[in-house]
Amino acid sequence: MRNHDNPRPAEEDVAGRLASDAAGLVRQEVARLRSEMSENVRRAGIGGGMMAAGALLGLLALHAGSVTLLRFLESTLSPKRAALALTSGYLTMGGALALLGLRRLRAASVTTRREVAHVKEEMAGAAEGARQASARTAPASR
Known about the structure:
By secondary structure, this protein is mainly α. The protein is built from two helices and no strands. Helix 1 runs antiparallel to helix 2 (79-137). The mean pLDDT is 82.
């Protein structure tokens, strides 16, 4: 038999269903994200293998180009000077590219940290909202 004098149980039922629905939605979203991530990891693995094969072929092409450039420099310089000039050029370009890449990685790391902090703030806000909603309905059951 329902108690029509006290509307609180109905509010508690609604709050309980709301919390249960929210928890169910969160579980569904987590399951969807896991599924997407596993598919992305599989695709990334295949793509990574293709990148490795491409990189190997690229290294072979760079080596062939380097030998060709060295032979060209040897036509105007002594073999030792040609090798020194080519090696110096490679070291200079390699160092510059490494420094530029390091700067970009650091910038990406800072952006990622900001995004993680933002998600944590949103989660904390959602948890606080759930606690407040729960606190509003909890005294009614006493």
